[in-house]
């Protein structure tokens, strides 16, 4: 069944769960990873 409030429901779910990249950022140093990926030897 299609919900008339699907957009609002998705937005509320995102707000409830939080940003998964912020959670990953606590464990992964993305700046160091990017630096390592883009360095040319």
SSE topology sketch:
Elements: H1 6-17, H2 20-25, H3 30-38
Please characterize this protein's 3D structure.
- The chain has 41 residues and is mainly alpha-helical.
- The chain is built from three helices and no strands.
- It has helices at residues 6-17, 20-25, 30-38.
- The chain is elongated.
- The N and C termini lie far apart (55 Å).
Count every beta strand, where a strand is a DSSP E run of 2 or more residues. Answer: 0
Work out the radius of gyration: 17 Å
Give the overall average pLDDT. Answer: 85
**Which shape, going by the Cα principal axes?**
elongated
Count of runs of 4 or more consecutive helical residues: 3
Helical fraction equals 55-70%
Structural class: mainly alpha
Offer a concise description of the structure.
With 41 residues, this protein is an all-alpha fold. It is 66% helix and 0% strand.
């Amino acid at each position: 069944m299609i919900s008339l409030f699907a957009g609002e429901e998705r937005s509320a779910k995102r707000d409830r769960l939080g940003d998964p990249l912020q959670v990953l950022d606590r464990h992964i140093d993305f700046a160091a990873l990017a630096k390592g990926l883009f360095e040319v030897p």
